[in-house]
Amino acid sequence: MNPMAKVDVVLIGGGIMSATLGTLIKQLQPDWSIEVYERLGEVAQESSNPWNNAGTGHAALCELNYMPAAKDGSVTADKAVSINEQFQISRQLWAHLVTTGALPEPTNFINSTPHMTFVRGKDNVAYLRKRFAALENEPLFHGMEYSEDPAVIGAWTPLLTSNRPKGHKIAATRIVSGTDVDFGALTRYLFENLAESGAGIHVNQQVTGLKQLADGSWRLNLRRLVGGHPSQVNARFVFVGAGGGALALLQQSGIPEVKGFGGFPISGQFLRTTNPKIVARHQAKVYGKAAVGAPPMSVPHLDTRIVDGEASLLFGPYAGFTPKFLKSSTWFDLPFSIRPHNIGPMLAVAAHNFGLMKYLLGEVFASKATKLKALQEFVPTAKLTDWELITAGQRVQVMKKDPEQGGVLQFGTEVIASADGTIAGLLGASPGASTAAPIMVDLIKRCFPEQYPAWEPKLREMIPSLGTKLSDDPAAAAASLAATAAALNLTA
To answer: Residue span of the signal peptide, if any (predicted)?
Structure first.
């Protein structure tokens, strides 16, 4: 490709977001040219890498942070249902791509894995009982079970109850239609299909600068990290899907929409075991309640993981702090992200989140014994000799202006797009990869308003529930769950 040729779409970053957006655009407008630039030697090596995330397939089936108790003790299902609705859009897209041959045998990237919650203590049991009552009649949560009986919970997954002291009040929910997703494999397959469709996938290439030209297009400066010379490319549309690196690139772009935004990096670690005797006794993803002051992505969970066909167990995450915005970037990411327009919100966030700072410092200096104790709250028989400590991916949470507090820390995702729709980027993390499809569909609608009406019929073919709420129609919800389960070889 002539490096100065004007391409239709440039995707910065080789993760699940860029892969999903590229796939959607190629399906909707096959004649558009797409070029992808990833600074590492392979795609899916940062947040999309299977060992840098929990692969839960976040559908709010087990994540308690999507249904916190209100001050009066009440529990509502609205956010959990909304998250599940978004995940169904992703499932429908993946099912369509499998059916049409764009994705391979689905067990290569998604597998049925029951989702469970598990709590201890009188107050937590009372909370979980309320949560179950709020969800049991929701169409997208059909089949959820609840128990306070150690024998029943032990039958679901023996590791939770083996050698647990008698008399301890415990409770759990289970829904067998949960999934484990290898987002690394899914990302690679999506990019492989894009390449086969004519897209250019460039690794070891870093975008070092970008500038909007008079005609509205963007000129990107590129640096080849392994051999070669600097080059440039012009693009009619740019998506910055660079994870923790997105904030710096959006700031470089100069678009006013990014003003006031900052990033707060949170690192993490997992304990992992591949001991077949231990792995065989736990086949589920089990989420508990977060510690006081803990960020939502630090909710403790004990997960079955299936990566490259091999099963293992993952426990954590143990949160920590580093100023790096990417796992493989520089310690100067945080200070270099400070601008006059975002220093106020960032200082306000620091002032209002002392509990979080204290929690993160405690996690950074936690001993092996402390980490083992946290694991033993889930697995009483756990021995540290059976588990190895691995480093998870970096998560950069959004800090932004707030009229009341000056600045707030947002545990979610935020799409930043220019007024003219020629550049957009994604900031934030949870629920992230699991909701890549609905996030990218919304981005397309926002950035391509002229083309969207013509694209909508094809989008509805790929995502039948688009624009509707499955939770409002039990029959439609059941049909959709059954159809995607069949296409993806999942438990309905």
So the answer is: none
